[in-house]
Amino acid sequence: MMTNADKLKQAAPQQPDQAGFKRVAVFGVGLIGGSFALALKKAGAVGQVVGVGRSLASLQRAQQLGIIDAIADSAAAAVRDADLVLIAAPVAQTAAILSSIQPYLQADTIVTDAGSTKSDVVAAAQQVLGDKLAQFVPAHPIAGREQNGPDAAIVDLYVGKKAVITRLPENTDEAVARVAYAWQQCGAIIHHLSPAEHDAVFASVSHLPHLLAYALVDDIARKPHADKLFQYAASGFRDFTRIAGSSPEMWRDITLANRVAMLRELDSYTARLAILRTHLVNADAAGIESIYSHAQAARHNWITAIEAAEKQNKEGGD
After folding, report:
1. Which residues, in sequence order, are CB contacts of 41 under 8 Å at separation 6+?
2. Closest CA to 167 of 127, 137, 126
3. Per-residue CA distances from 276 to 240, 285, 294, 298 (Å)
4. How many other β-carbons are positioned within 10 Å of the β-carbon of residue 154?
5. Backbone Cα Rg of the chain
């Protein structure tokens, strides 16, 4: 009976264009990794995608959906002859995955990730990759949905979205360019931040909002009349809490990985809530309206800036 390793050896990948990848290995074939694979395939930028993961059922489903072409049954089989390796698993698994592939990395293989935190990922890479650290280019695509698993993957998830590269001092310009090329083929717009800058920014605008959404839904669900409350929850509640439908495992790891920045942002938010509470206790209409008006203006400015940036990108601006 032919094993997965035998099938990998016999698989004959289609040849991508000259700038593309012959073989890409994806650790984690759910929403993020699966969408990455689908987008590269649509762009004709990859010959073969090999999937790796903890669940054989998920890998088989990804293969059925055409997300991956083959299933690797070991780290060695996964990275063999791979031009690019994407780690799209929860960030707490990064160190173990990097450690498992380190002995088998060929000199021309580039490794990147899609983790929502970067300082912890960089620390893991520094600890386990040794003299192969330069081959790891950290990145984070700013896109997602609340669904999980291979069935959640969509080919256009990254179109028009940002992909942040947090290059290491050891990275070559060529390695960074190859990772940027991969995300550009997915339709993403490349941005650059340091790992520390990245984690500070996303603690504020991504990680804290997820924590708040989870906390609100959990609070309501624990009330004795929760069924009645949810019965009357409408679009405002749905919009505010949509992200609480995301993977608890993934967001647990993100919350802990970015713990210091998260605590800083949570303290800042708690202080703002305390001010609002004081206004409410004092029936201070002017104080409440002042905060609401400032927030409204800031959000309008943000939406206007986004629309301007998207228009510029569509018209060929950078």
Report:
1. 49, 66
2. 137
3. 19, 10, 13, 17
4. 16
5. 22
Residue among 118, 119, 123, 124 at smallest CA distance from 101: 124
Specify the CATH number for 4-193; select among 3.40.50.1580, 3.30.70.20, 3.40.50.720, 3.30.428.10: 3.40.50.720
Instruction: Locate 112 and state its tokens.
Output: 């990147």
Q: Which of 143, 16, 29 is nearest to 83 (CA)?
A: 16
Q: Which residue has the tokens 């380190």?
A: 102
pTM for this predicted structure? 0.85
Token look-up 């060529």 returns: 174
Per-residue tens of pLDDT for the chain, all 318 residues = 444 444 444 444 444 555 799 999 999 999 999 999 999 999 999 999 999 998 999 999 999 999 999 999 999 999 999 999 999 999 999 999 999 999 999 999 999 999 999 999 999 999 999 999 999 999 999 998 878 899 999 999 999 999 999 999 999 999 999 999 999 999 999 999 999 999 999 999 999 999 999 999 999 999 999 999 999 999 999 999 999 998 898 899 999 999 999 999 999 999 999 999 999 999 999 999 999 999 999 999 999 987 776 654 443 333
CB atoms within 10 A of CB 57: 10
Q: Which fold has domain 198-283?
A: 6-phosphogluconate dehydrogenase C-terminal fold (1.10.3660)
Give 3-state DSSP helix, strand, coil % of the chain, rounded to 5: 60, 10, 30
Task: Round to whole Å and give the CA distance between 259 and 254.
Answer: 8
Which 3-state string (H, E, C) describes 64-108? HCCCCCEECCCHHHHHCCCCEEEECCCHHHHHHHHHHHHHHCCCC
Spatial distance between the Cα atoms of 61 and 64, rounded to a whole number of angstroms = 5
Handedness of CA 237, 239, 244, 245 (dihedral sign): positive
